[in-house]
Specification:
20% of the residues lie in helices and 28% in strands. The chain has 153 residues and is an alpha/beta fold. It binds copper (II) ion.
Length: 153
């Protein structure tokens, strides 16, 4: 629906549907114009965004996924929330692919839209990302220590 429309708008459909084998070699070549967004190919893990007696937090705040998995962020309570990947902690060489993947959910650069609707979700794809640790935070609650780490293996 929205993702498909976005993909069509950006001319990404062919790239999305291309075989996995085309990805690694073409990544460096495509870097000047930016790599194509790569959708989730593996397991989807859920991270809940909430406010309870422990404060504003991501639950779990630390998780390890396999490259290609998706991380679905679910608004449980304490909205508004969003997810911003910390510029200073993006594994080397992964920024452009991360930005491309985040564009699938309407993100601007490294920041997802701020979501105010309870029970809504969005999913971040780790397909094509360099293995390593990705720190992220919620912009509205950054000063309240709402942050987490995704380790991509
Ligand atoms: Cu928040």
């Amino acid at each position: 629906m929205r993702q498909a429309a976005l993909s069509a708008l950006l001319g990404l459909c062919a790239a999305c549907q291309s075989p996995v084998t085309a990805t690694p070699a073409s990544a460096a070549v495509a870097a000047t114009s930016g790599p194509a967004a790569q959708p989730v190919r593996g397991t989807v893990h859920t991270v809940r965004m909430l406010l309870d007696n422990d404060g504003y937090r991501f639950e779990p705040s630390y998780l390890t996924v396999m490259q290609g998995d998706g991380v679905r962020f679910a608004m449980i309570s304490g909205v508004p929330h969003n997810v911003v990947f910390d510029e200073q902690f993006i594994p080397s060489g992964s920024r452009t692919q991360l930005v491309a993947n985040l564009s699938l959910l309407g993100a601007r650069d490294l920041a997802s839209p701020v979501v105010v609707t309870l029970d809504s979700t969005f999913t971040v794809s780790t397909t094509g990302l360099v293995r390593g640790e990705y720190l992220f935070y919620c912009a509205p609650h950054r000063s309240l220590n709402m942050h987490g780490v995704i380790t991509v293996r």
